[in-house]
Design goal:
It is a single chain. By secondary structure, the chain is mostly beta strands. It contains four helices and 42 strands. The chain has two domains: 31 residues; 636 residues, TonB-dependent receptor, beta-barrel domain (Maltoporin, Chain A). Strand 12 and strand 13 form a beta hairpin. It starts with 7 loop residues before the first helix and ends with a strand.
């Protein structure tokens, strides 16, 4: 039985305690029978379940886990909670040769992956709502990981919580995550020593190599150390694009049974030269979208460059007061330095004509986050209780300066995405702040207290979760040019959670929930057409979104899955008859999700999911877009993946994945539509003995048919287009010894 991250010893000890107790009792009974003194023998044991500090084991097939971390609720078995959660294992990450967290999340139909506007950040939509990289947690703690691109080598697991999550996780500094949350679990040393060397090639010339070493020490293996180093550099499959990646990660832990302590320290640097950016559609006059350029075409200037560097750390301490109660304290943070020179193409018509802008940005940030809490169990008569009390906070400060050409005196230069012009770097610049010493432009303080009780009835076959979170959000804004204070706000809210789960059989759980999300609001726009908005520039306060969900989960040992129906309502900015902006509009996403995973037969593994979505805009300004689809949300998405251990060639595995994404609109008026698209990925994996270890060869091809397609629209709330990646070859060799 496998337990990741070195926590397995405690579970083994619990199992051993039960087994030894049973053996001793049985032996005593036998001895008593021999001497004629046998009366009545009673043997008792405690059912072994996933506790709040033990990560759930991998499911059959090894691609997903049986549960994940649910914020204040801790590590939970998915069959025991009234929420949708799925965790992708390091085995899946390695076998798919995933480079980033975005590559991993492509496996779930509820998630679409894009990039930010004017930068190379990975951006996600979960159930049709934005999640930025800033708002991904590390071991359940926000404000630690790099904010733009997160390398998959940081993760032992990538965990996806679907639905609003303010109660479970608190409110991240970036204020996104209405449709779901993502958590990255740190790597830990295991009882089996880890000695891993890897090297890889990605078209068209990106070479990488890495080391992963883990050891446990001490009389009871109570001390652990895990070191991961990765370095890659070279050309990508997009013409004239190059990336350089550096990662160093150290994880230390102590597991003394009742006391546990861990420390994680990491550094990640990514340098991107000349890669494609989103296409801006602001002011677009075409009646339809331009045809898609060649899959590997590059239409941005070659001087595009972005350097992203983050150093981060986290320390966690846990203490078991007894078998039922655990206290914990977590502290973490990061420091980020970014510098980017971006030449974004703004399209003007359906022939692909447009102009190239220029924006030079210096960005620095620091964050500090904390958690402290107590979780435990008790019984009141026939009712069991799982109690959780927790406090969490995150502080973030950002410093920003930027420069751009004086476009009034000298307009942006013309280009065409099918025949790009040679665009020089401009020198006629307007500066906002000092690029060498940017001013502080924002400070955000989020903190809150959560309390919950999961009540168990009918021998815990019926579980009722009730809870609430008191959350404070403080936003302070400052001008980039002067550092002068600008409008901000301080507000607080209480968000409830209600969840009901019924174990209809040992294999089927039925559930329902109501849960909410909080985020800092936008600033009121300055104009409404030709008229000025009365509260222009005013921050509109806290936004509260609501989710209702019902569903069913099943687990038959070797095959599992779920189906869920959900509705999420998020307030949207609208302007009333008095020309005042407020959160009077709404985006309502209704959807159905299904998933299937496991190993239905020996040597055949499945990982599949599907989502159908109805994203409706309601109560828009002047009713102009009422009933339209929200932009950037696909009407459906299917992901079908699988592996097959070929029967006639020992240790050779064929892999495949098909991703199908439905149409989506670019604009609120639904005038511009992105066509559906399909991507096919195929691969082979071969494991060969090498001395006392294994040498694993992996060869994957993404977008096998080299499809040319617009992958997504409006990934960050702006009218943008993202082109899908070209055919990409990945070859790697990993030596485990």
């Amino acid at each position: 039985m496998t337990r990741e991250q070195g926590y397995g010893r405690r579970l083994v000890q619990r199992v051993a305690g039960v087994v030894v107790g049973s053996v001793v009792a049985t032996g005593s009974a036998y001895a008593a029978e021999q001497d004629g003194s046998l009366d009545t023998i009673t043997v008792t044991s405690t059912a072994i379940e996933t506790a709040g500090d033990l990560p759930p084991p991998a499911y059959a097939g090894g691609q997903v886990a049986t549960g994940g971390r649910l914020g204040i609720l801790g590590e939970q078995d998915a069959m025991n909670v009234p929420f949708s959660v799925i965790s992708y294992t390091d085995e899946l990450i390695e076998n798919q040769q995933a480079d980033t967290v975005g590559d991993v999340l492509q496996n779930d139909a509820s998630v679409t992956v894009g990039t930010g506007f004017g930068n190379y950040a990975e951006s996600f939509k979960i159930r049709g709502f934005d999640l930025y990289g800033d708002d991904i947690s590390f071991g359940g703690l926000y404000g630690v990981l790099p904010r733009q691109i997160i390398a998959s080598d940081i993760a032992s697991r990538v965990e996806l919580f679907k639905g609003a999550s303010a109660f479970a996780n608190g409110v991240p500094a970036g204020g996104t995550g209405v449709g779901g949350a993502v958590n990255i679990e740190p790597k830990r040393a295991t009882d089996t020593p880890i000695n891993r060397l890897s090297t890889g090639y990605t078209s068209d010339g990106h070479i990488e190599s890495g080391i992963d070493v883990g050891r446990r020490f001490g009389e009871a293996n109570e001390f652990g150390a895990r070191l991961t180093l990765k370095r890659g550099r070279g050309d990508t499959a997009v013409d004239d694009a190059e990336r350089e990646n550096t990662l160093a990660l150290l994880g230390l832990d102590y597991d003394g049974g009742d006391d546990r302590l861990s420390f994680d320290l990491g550094h990640q640097k990514t340098v991107i030269d000349g890669d494609r950016l989103n296409l801006n559609l602001g002011g677009y006059t075409g009646n339809s979208l331009p045809s898609v350029p060649d899959s590997d075409a590059n239409y941005v200037p070659g001087w595009n460059r972005s350097s992203l560097e983050t150093t981060f750390a986290m320390v966690r301490g846990e203490h078991d007061f007894n078998d039922d109660w655990t206290g914990y304290v977590v502290l973490g943070g990061n420091r980020t330095h970014e510098r980017s020179l971006a030449g974004t193409v703004t399209l003007s018509d359906e022939d692909g004509n447009g102009t190239v802008g220029q924006l030079d940005t210096a960005y620095q940030s620091e964050s500090l986050a904390s958690q402290i809490g107590l979780r435990g169990e008790l019984d009141t008569g026939p009712v069991s209780h799982q109690l959780n009390l927790g406090y969490s906070s995150v502080y973030s400060r950002k410093d920003v300066a930027y420069s751009f050409p004086d476009t009034q005196a000298n307009p942006n230069l013309a280009t065409n995405i099918h025949d790009p012009a040679d665009i020089p770097i401009r020198g006629d610049l307007t500066f906002s702040g000092d690029l060498s010493h940017p001013n502080t432009t924002g400070r955000i303080y989020n903190n809150g207290v959560s309390l919950s009780d999961t009540l168990g009835f009918i021998d815990d076959r019926l579980l009722l979760t009730l809870g609430a979170r008191y959350q404070e959000i403080e936003v302070n804004n400052y001008g980039a040019a002067t550092g002068a204070s600008e409008p901000g706000f301080t507000e607080s809210r209480v968000t409830p959670v209600y969840g009901l789960l019924y174990k209809a059989t040992d294999n089927i759980s039925l559930y329902a929930n109501h849960i909410e999300a909080l985020q800092a609001g936008e600033s009121a726009p300055f104009t409404n057409g030709a008229e000025n908005v009365t509260n222009a520039g005013q921050v509109l306060g806290i936004v509260r979104s609501k989710q209702d969900e019902v569903g069913a989960k099943f687990d038959y040992g070797n095959i599992g899955g779920a189906i869920a129906l959900f509705q999420i309502e998020q307030p949207q900015v609208a302007i009333d008859s008095n020309n005042t902006a407020g959160y009077d509009g709404e985006q309502r996403n209704r959807g159905i999700e299904t998933s299937l995973y496991g190993e239905p037969m020996t040597g055949v593994r499945l990982l599949a999911s599907a989502t159908w979505m109805d994203p409706e805009l309601r109560d828009t300004t002047d009713g102009a877009n009422d009933g339209n689809d929200a932009p950037g949300v696909a009407s459906y998405r299917y992901v079908l993946g699988g592996e097959w251990d070929l029967p006639h060639v020992q240790k050779l595995t064929a892999t495949g994945r098909v991703i199908r994404t439905g149409s989506q609109y670019v604009d609120d008026a639904n005038n511009l539509e992105v066509d559906p698209w399909t991507r096919l990925d195929l691969g082979l994996r071969y494991t060969m003995p090498f001395n006392d270890g294994n040498l694993i060869w992996r060869a994957n091809v993404e977008n096998v048919t080299d499809e040319e397609y617009w992958a997504s629209a409006a990934t960050t709330g702006s009218q943008t287009l993202l082109q899908g990646e070209p055919r990409t070859f990945k070859l790697s060799a990993t030596l485990d010894f």
